[in-house]
Amino acid sequence: MGLINQLSRTRNSIKQLLKLPNSLTPLISATNSRLLESKVWQSNSYCSQIRHTQKEIIDLSKYPPEKIRNFSIIAHVDHGKSTLADRLLELTGTIKKGLGQPQFLDKLQVERERGITVKAQTVTMFHHPTSHVSEIGNAEDKAPFLLNLIDTPGHVDFSYEVSRSLAACQGALLVVDAAQGVQAQTVANFYLAFESNLSIIPVINKIDQPTADPERVTAQLKSMFDLDPADALLTSAKTGQGLEHILPAVISRIPPPPGKNDSPLRMFLLDSYYDEYKGVICHVAVVDGTLRKGDKISSVATGDTYEVSDVGIMHPELVPTGVLFSGQVGYVVSGMRSTKEARVGDTLHHARIVVEPLPGFKPARHMVFSGLYPADGSDFEALNHAIERLTCNDASVSVTKETSTALGLGFRCGFLGLLHMDVFHQRLEQEYGAHIISTVPTVPYIFEYSDGSKVEVQNPAQLPSNPKQRVTACWEPTVVATIIIPSLWDLLCHCALIGEGSNWNTPSSIVNGYS
Fold it and tell me: Is the pLDDT at 52 greater than 80, yes or no?
């Protein structure tokens, strides 16, 4: 009954509106006219903003290889490399000071929660060597430099990310804590860069700390890596002290990429991730040639051909440019729909043009194996889908299907370490909502039979059980370790008498090698 009364009142109101005097008609027309003009003005304003944005499309043709520097930041855990990357982004105007979140390039939720870098991230910056950052846009006499920065993880479990990143660089900033000095991953990352023949710039960070001792750290760098103490840059990424010397050092000490724009296209596939709308987005380093939107490219690994639908740079997010030239690092969208099509280390080239493949990465050496099973057996396909998408973004994980009598269908996954395994599990849950059961991690063993054949066992269920084959030896993993200690701590030198080992003195430390 109440609904009928409400409809009746609404009908009466409409009748009263229809009886409005003609004198109000011009007012209504004027009001409608103003509304229409307002909509037209808003539309024109929106269109002008689009045109203004289109005028600011980055012209990468202004940056020949000699105007490009590709470098990464390598360091031990918590030595300040991500904070240093933030300051460099602010110095070049890539992000506004104080508006970005701390550790801007640490974008994963797991990175935020744990306070560590898990994924290497690439960002393109523009820097004028003679003008202030705010004057870069007005400098017409000399084009700024294009700097591609790659922030890398510091934990040993993510060393594969570091090695892939260094393949796209010609130099590296070796960041060392002024208080802690050279640490384990400082040594490991230095030799990764050294073996890649990169120009290394030592950066002693956190000099604002009360316990900082830059002189001791420079002596360590000299004795262990033969790095000239005069080349070390003393900085504090937290306070900004000494940061003004880093970018000039990058430009003067790191060589430009050696490629040529007129050579046949060769691109290095550095990384990839899956987007629900665009498919697989590949991060590439253009070694030779030029890539444009609409080009058809082929993969050396698979032989498949794709058409480039989008190409651009990370500045700091995806910015379409329509083209990538030799020496530049960016992203490519080519219509890949399966994560198996994007193979890290692959060489991409123009279709129907034969090129020499680029040297790929060393395969990841898996140290820990664990089984992953869906908490609900009916979610196997969903877990399979999630693992495929995640391994597209983490190529260092090996995955094989297996069956357990207790847990059903699942996967046997290989990881670089326990932290790597834990982070992979956490990303499955956070990014894909997967509920999993993981088995106790194991290490691989090698069994040798009486006939001389050997088999690697990664799962206890695969232990030899054939009575006709007699096992003569079982090999387990061992570690060859180098322990670096202060010269005052001479106690470990006596441990060499117990096992196989050797000692040698340096001016600031004693190095012990064991196996």
Answer: no
